[in-house]
Amino acid sequence: MEDLRQTALAYYMAANEDIRHVVEEIFVEMDPNNHRQVKFKEFSAYMETIGCENMSSEEFYEELKHGGNDELEFDDIITLLYIIYSQRPFCGGKCKKFVKGMYFTCVKCFDDFDHNEGALATPTFSVCSRCFLARDFEHRHGEFLDPIVLLNLKRMEALRNRQMEVEAARSSSATSANGTMKSSTSAKVS
């Protein structure tokens, strides 16, 4: 969790004032008695209110707490918001735990997009490294990659597609230029 915490704090420190203000507002919403700490009951109720029931457990609450604190503090809420907005997964395998480290994502689910509706057709499916290695999960697709490999693969595909577009544009303009030269040569001969 420490890597996620450091990443979240780095994003927060680099954020503009508007984003920092939103984070502060969310913290205040979670802490109605304004004692600058969020108790489990407050946390759990808030998570259920925003539709994050999978994060409302006491186990997840305990993982979020930093440095042996009894309750969540502001930095813990920054970490929580990073986890929510970066869509860090809970394992879809047997353990069902929050994935703090590396994980594997189904490539087909990641790419599945409903072009008719203009929205994601299915949520992504991810499993922790332990469940993936043990094949302790059930899923209808078989191609899984970790996010770093997946990102690099998508980048290479985009670069390849861009290169093909550039080459097609060059070829098209060369063909067009040749056609213009031929027709002007024909006009001179006549």
Automatic annotation (TrEMBL):
**By its UniProt entry, which InterPro entries does this protein fall under?**
EF-hand-dom_pair, EF_hand_dom
What are this entry's molecular-function GO terms? Answer: calcium ion binding
State the source organism's domain of life.
Answer: Eukaryota
Renumbered to this chain, region (Disordered) spans 167-190
Q: Ranges of Polar residues compositional bias?
A: 170-190
- Outline the extent of the EF-hand domain: 18-53
Protein name as it appears in the record: Parvalbumin
